[in-house]
Structures are given as structure tokens and as C-alpha cells.
Design a protein that fits this description.
The chain is mainly alpha-helical and 990 residues long. It contains 45 helices and 12 strands. Residues 87-311, 586-820 form the Glutamate-ammonia ligase adenylyltransferase repeated domain.
Amino acid sequence: MADRARQTASPARFGFTDDRAAEQLRAVGWWDAAGPVAGTEPLLTALSRTPDPDLALRGLERLWETDPEAWPELDESLRGNARLRGQLLAVLGSSSALADFLVSEPGQWRRLTGPAPTPPTGYTTALLAAVRAESGTLTLEEAQHALRVGYRALLTEIAAADLGHLVEDGLAGLPYAEVTGRLTALAEAALAAGLAVAEREVGEPGDTTLAVIAMGKCGGWELNYVSDVDVIFVGEGDQRLATRLASTMLRVVGKSCFEVDAALRPEGKAGALVRTLDGHETYYKKWARTWEFQALLKARPVVGDVELGRRYTDLVAPMVWAAAERENFVADVQRMRRRVERHVPAEIVDRELKLGRGGLRDVEFAVQLLQLVHGRADPELRSPSTMDALDALGAGGYVGRADAAELEESYEFLRTVEHRLQLRRLRRTHLFPDDSETGELRRLARACGVRSVRGKPAGEVLLAEFRRHAQRIRKLHEKLFYRPLLESVAKVPTEALRLTTKQAASRLAALGYAAPDGALQHIGALTTGVSRRAAIQQALLPVLLDLLADTPDPDGGLLAYRRVSEALAETPWYLRVLRDTSAVVERLAVLLGTSRLVPDLLVRAPEVLQLLGDPEKLAHRSTDEVACSLRAAARRQPGLGAAVRTARSLRRHEMLRVACADLLGLLEVPDVCAALSSVWGAVLQSALAAALRKRVAEVGGEPARIAVIGMGRLGGAELSYTSDADVLFVCAPVGEATDAEAVRFASSVAETVRQALGAPSQDPALQVDADLRPEGRSGPLVRTLDSYRAYYTRWAEVWEAQALLRARFVAGDVELGERFGELIDPIRYPEGGLDAAQVREVRRIKARVDTERMPKGADRTTHTKLGRGGLAAVEWTAQLWQLRYAHEIPDLRTTSTPEALRALVRAGLAEAADVDSLIEAWMLATKARNAAMLVRGKAVDQLPSSGRELTTVASVLGYSVEDDPGEFVDYYRRTTRRAHAVVERLFYED
């Protein structure tokens, strides 16, 4: 009990760690042998809540020692005035420098007894009164001392209002912006008083006028408790007199209040301290570097001749907002930030609040770069305040709302920490304590209002918060500051950023838009109004217009962009992705200015847009993974309709993904064909599974297994964007079911699949074509294995054996599909090959196809499918040799056309040069056919004969839009002519 009583009576109970605490408390009359004196509990509790109770108590003791006669008044005021108690004790417990001031200037504490501090509008009056004694006999030293006292007194008021809420709950803390605003107003007042003293020292200025331009944090209303105040001087009249005024002011304010830095003037410290307006204009127009215009962003007249200061800012503002047009502007600003960062010693770079990674400069450089690039056309961004500019960037859509809010929060946190660090000794410091400095961390945490959390010390909590905010700032800095879109925007002339002017129409025509007036209508529709969407579009469109101008069809691309934007207007991430990821904008422009199919698909599969920023995800997704994902998603659906809709949706997604990668040159022809074939197979599998579930539920059992055999391009994994799915359906009875029952059940399922997939849709058709089945359209849709065996053994013609060369299991029962493959191998790889009559028959059928199926008026030299040296010619050649020799050469037993051709070389049946010609022509025709489909948005086998469509198809094949598209046509004809010569030898000659 005795120990508990002693512990209760110990000053440690109130957070004091100094061994002299009890003695100090007794000295001021708040402690006796038994412990706290009656009525002092609120005082001791208040002391315990200060950032450093020991420091606060030492300050009180010093006040008592310095002015013991005034102590009773102070003691009584502290007991009865909560505002004074909270503010004075908070100042004493936070700042040894301000405690020194209060001790050295007895009675200054009374400033904190009133109901409110001096308003910022009264700072200048107060300091001018301090340096202008009524007698007018103050010496320079006396004036400087008076200015110092007046400045420190007002600074104490600001700190007291800022910190008092830490000690007394009833007091409201000052918002960050108000603290920096008051500090800036105080600095301006000090400059005004310093200039007044300088004018008195220098003498009557006559016609000479001087304007003081605030720069940096003072210009942005963002000063710290301890900051250099950056200024530029502008003078008219006698320049020597103006220079004496400026230099005297610098000396007076520097000795009294803070350092005034004029190094941002033209030519820096080597240049004249004061220049005329003409001198500034000449320098900035001829010699100024990029960083100087960045600094001028915050230029603001504060003291001296108001009219001269206004003329100066009117002079430099147009240069500031044109700086982004300078060559390499964005790169220069980025390089400067990296140079500043490199100068920070490695051992403190992670603790440097101002210049380090994730520090204040990261925010300021990012904001200023965005301001200078986008502020050319948007006056709302032209604020010298970092926080105000961030608000405007967020409101205008140049930065995401969440990003802007997070940057503001983290910037304010770091600035608050910086203020508390500087207040301690009123020294300019930006170094966060090391994690080993637990005592300093604890004091700083308490000064920032951070308390312990769930047993975790306040210092550790603050350290974790500091690291979190620094990491967030760095991440957002790199996202915004190094956003490649900035360079693109910076390269757009300022006039072109004003999208609806006559100059913009002229520029659109110069860029190659065939209908500038129509383009302006699209631009107006996208940017009209004050919505956030319109603001983001205003920032995006100047860059997008330039990007579209480099595509084959700028007008069509802009129209497509409008359609996509209007369709996705309510998609929350759409414009954000375009704004934040320049690669997406650049690739989207290429796609929209090239393809009619892509925008049609994009409005219904917008999620693919996000893949444009990641070529790896866009182009290199595993076909097996895609198919598995599609089947799984469809399987989870409750019925046939839902399963088919899901399969359609995923097919649309994949088709768009593949089309984008194809147009951007990220996929080769075989990869495109394999991806399209794989997704078609997965769609068939999903529809078949859903139709089976539906039919089984209806009949109460599953009397048959079903397999779907891919034929033609599907079987060869060589599908194009518009290919039908050529298939055969095969079934096998289950259990005691008869063949007839199995066929009836399977036919119902197969027909359901065909109808469900073939239903009208905005997407490219999903046509399931079973016309290659035995007896064609007149034959049954589904047969059993035995039925197929009987037919092929007795009735199969050579063309049917040829069709079976590309037969491949794609969906349904795997074991049944494998058995079908074994069944048809003797048919498609006939023992002994073909006899002479069969070879002639194949040649006859091809000749008939070439004659009868070629569209009337088609150009045989540019028809990709049936033309000279086209797809059909190459495929029939490969298939003829497979029919003749696959029975003895296993390598020829493949459903792939290119692989079958390569096998001819390995087997010594054809020359490598001939096969290379065939494969080159086949690849070219396939790519050209796909390109024509993507460009026109509908199936087409004939290359365009001329015009923009031909130019666009040529661009997809790798030709520049500036090239003559006839070069592509010549190359196509030359390649297919060589292939035709090879076909003539390999197909028609024995």
C-alpha cells in the first residue's frame, strides 16, 4: 500500500521522466510532500498531454524564475483559462525555441489569454507599428530587434492556435491550409516591415519603385514554420537605389525573422539583384531554362509597388503556360527531379521528408508538371498552391479522384510532421527520426496527435504511418510524374488544345482528317458540358487526335472513339484507364483507326480495353487456359440459354483480344488461327454440355454418348474470324439403348446446339455447319460409329476422304472421338494411296470448284480463298499429297496445312524452296483475309481494289499509311504467283 501511495504521488504518473520534476513542480507551487497541490490536477493532466511534459515543465519553471512577480497572475490564468492552459503548455512542450522567446520577453504569454489570436489581416499593421516608433528615433538595430520580437510573438500565436487542441479537448486545431496561410501572411508582413525599415535607412526613393515577388512556398501560400522565403525583385527608376533598398530589406529581414533567398532571379546569385521589367522579359525570352518557368508558376507579388508587381506577373504568366511546348520539356522536368533525388545522401534518403523518395518534392514536382502541361488550356489549374492545384486536377479529371485525395492526405501528413520537427528548435530540418531514436519518435508522435494503438507505442505507430504515406506518394508520383501521356500532350501545340476553335479545324485538316467539320462535331459531343467525363475527354482528345492522324482512317477512328465513349460512358474505369495508361490510348487509336470490327466488339466486351496496356496478357494467353475458363463459366450457368449467352460473351472477349493482338502485330498467323479455333471448340463443348443436361432432364436419362468432330478449318485449327464450324456428330448408345434411340436422342441434342449457337446476334456468326456429313444435307445429322463405318466402307468418294484429312475431335465424349479417329484413318490415309483415276478426280473437282465457286467479276489474282495461289490452291495441293502418301509417311498424318507441307520436304517429296513458297502464300492469304475482315467488319475473301480500305489492309500487313498500297498488292500477287507455279507442278504434274 505504501509503495502504491508513493507511486501515486510520483510525477511519473503525469508522464515526467526528469528526476527534477518534483522539485520543479514544488518551485511553481503545484506539488508538495504529499503530491499534487489541491486544484492542480487539471494543470498536471494538461502537462501530461503535451508532446514533451519535461520540456513544458522546464519552460514553466523558467517563466517563474524570470518573472516571479508575474507568476501569480500566470498561475491563476492557467487554472481558470482553458484556452491559455492548452495553448501555452502545448507551445512550451513542443518548442524550446518559442519557450526561449517567452522567457526572454516577459509578458508575451498574455497574448494567449484573449478570446482569439491576431487575425492574419492584422499582421502587417502589427509589424509596421513595431518598427515605426512614435518618436521615430529607432536605430537600425532597434528596428531589427523590434521586428524580431513582433515576428516571434505572432509566430507564437500561430503555433499556440495550431497545437492547443493536443492539450485541451475543448480547443479546435487549425486546418493545415490555415496554418500555412497564416505563416505566409506573417512572412509577407515581415517583408513589408523590412522594406519599410530599408526605405527609412536608404532615404527618399523619389521616382524609384520596387516590387517584391514571392516565389516557392511563399508564392503558393504554403510556408513552414521555418522556411527560406524565395523572392525576385523588380525595379523601375534608379536601379542602384532599388538595389540598395532590396539588399537592405534582405539584411533586415534575414537578421530579424528568416532568410530571404533571391537566388531564383535571372542568372541566379551571379545576376543582378534587381532588374527592370524589360530586363526580365529579355532574359526569360532568350536565356531562361525549363526549371525557371517551373519556379515562376508560384510567382506572386506581395510587397512594394502593387502595380509593378502585377505587370511582372502579367509578363511572365504567358511564358509559364507556354513552357510545356519547349523541346524536351517533360524530360527536362523529370531529369531535374532525379538529379535532386540523387543529391540526397543514401543513408538518409528514406528519412528525408522533403527531397527523398516519397517526399514532399515528389508531390510538388508531379503536380507542377501536370499543371504546366494541362494548364495551357485549362485556367482552373493555374494555382500556385499545391493543394488547390491537386483539387483542380482531381476535379478536372486529369488525376483520379482517389489518387488526388490520397496525395492530398499524404502531403498534408508529411507537411504536418515537418512543421512539428521544425517547431522544436525553429530550425530548418526535414529529417524524420531514425527508428532507433525512440524518445524523439515518441515526442514527435505526440506532437502530431498520434497515440499508441493496441499496446503499440505511439512512436512505432507514427513510423509505420510515415512509411505508408511515403510509399503511397512514391507510387502515385511514378504513376503521374512519369505518365508517358504527358509527353504526348506536351507536344500538342497550345492552340490545338482548344479543341473547337477555327484553328483546331485547320489543324485537323492538316493532320489528314478528310472531314474536319465532322471531326469537330464529334469532339464537341464528347467535350461539351462541365461533367468530369467531358473534362477528361478535353485532356485526352488532343493526344488522341494526333494518334488517330497516324492511322489509315482518322475520321473513322474518331467516329469509332465517339461510339465507344458514348457506349461506355457509365463504365467507371473507362476514361480513367485511358488517362492513366498512355499505352492503352496509343494502341486504342491504332485499333479504332484501322478496324470496324474492333469497336463493334469493344462496346460489348470493354474489359479487353484494360489488356491493351499489357502486351503479355493481351497476346500470350494459353489457349488451353482460355478454353478451360470458358467451359467452366458456361457450366456454372443454370440452363441452356444462360450457358450459351455466357459462352458467346467469352467468345466475344477472346475474339476481340485476339483481334487486338493481331492488329497490333503481337500474334503470328498460326497463333491467331489456333486461338480462334480453340475458343470455337470450347463454345461447342459448352453448348453441347448444356444441351445434354437439358435433354437428359427432359427424357429422364442419357441413352447416348456424343462426340463432335471438327472438320475443315476448325479441324485443322486454322479458323479465321468469320469461319463457320464445320462438324460431324457421332453417337454411341449407352446401356441397353438401341442405335435408333441413341441416334434420336443425339440428333435432338445436336439440333439444339445448332439452333442455340446459330441464333441471331450482333457478334460474328456462330454457324454450325454439318454439310460435310455422309450424304450431305439429305443425310442424317447424327450417325453411330457403325453407321459411319458402313457408309465410308461402301460409299465414300475421294472428296469425302479428302474432307476427313482435317477431321479432329473437338467436343463431347473423348473416348468416342478417339474411336472415330481410328475408324476414319483407313479412309483418309488409304492403303496404297490413290490410283490414277482418283488423282484425276481430285484434280477435276478442284478445277470445277475454281470455276463454279469463284464470284462473278472477282479478280483471281487477289481473291484470297479461290484465287491464283490462294488458300484453296495450297490446301488442295497438301491434301492431294496426303491422300497419296500418308499411309506410308506418318508425318503426313496431320490436320495442319503448313505441317503437312513441311512433312513433304522431310519425306523428300518436294523441294524446300517450293514448300516455302506455298507456306508463304498460305500465310499471306490467311493474314490478308483476316485483315480484310477486321478492316471492313464483315466477311470478305477479295482484297480491296483501291482506296482507303486497301491502304488499311496494307497497314495491317506492315506497310506504312504513307506507302503506296499498290506495293502491297504487287507483293501479294508476286507471292501467290510463285505459289501458283508450284501448285501447277505439285498438283497437276505426276
